[in-house]
Amino acid sequence: MITFKTIARFVLGITFIVAGIAHFVVPDFYLVMMPPWLPFHLELIYISGFLEIVFGTMILIPPFIKYGAWGIIFVLLAVFPANIHMALNAELFSTVPEYLLWLRLPFQFVLIGWAWWYTR
């Protein structure tokens, strides 16, 4: 029997895999998000995309669920400065309503909680 927790785990994993792939397909989209004080913007985009793919895949494979979940939490915390940068510099993201940029901040904690569910 497939449980809600299993379905939610697959949704989380696939979401991170797709998001990770997007880092390689449209890296320019992510370049604008990078805080200017961080070095190696493009490299960090590729690294975070790679990690999203790896951890998104790991959470789908039963022996690696816990490690994938911890990895997702790590990535979400690592990219949080970019989300803060977006909210504080809304003029750089004219196609996105400002309130959505601010809404992303607490949503990161929802995603962290979702991943945390699988660390148990």
Strand content: under 5%
Order of helices and strands: HHHHH
- The biggest beta sheet, please? none
Rg for CA atoms: 15 Å
- Which descriptor suits the 3D outline? globular
Total of domains: 1
The strand count comes to 0
Low-confidence stretches: none
Distance between the termini: 20 Å
Structure annotation, total helices: 5
Write down the overall mean pLDDT: 96
Query: How helix-rich are the residues, as a percent range?
Result: over 70%
Structural class: mainly alpha
Structure characterization notes:
The structure is a single chain. The chain is globular. With 120 residues, it is mostly helical. It is built from five helices and no strands. It has helices at 4-25, 27-31, 41-58, 65-88, 98-116. It has one domain. The model has no long low-confidence stretch (mean pLDDT 96). Helix 4 (65-88) packs antiparallel against helix 5 (98-116). The two termini are 20 Å apart.
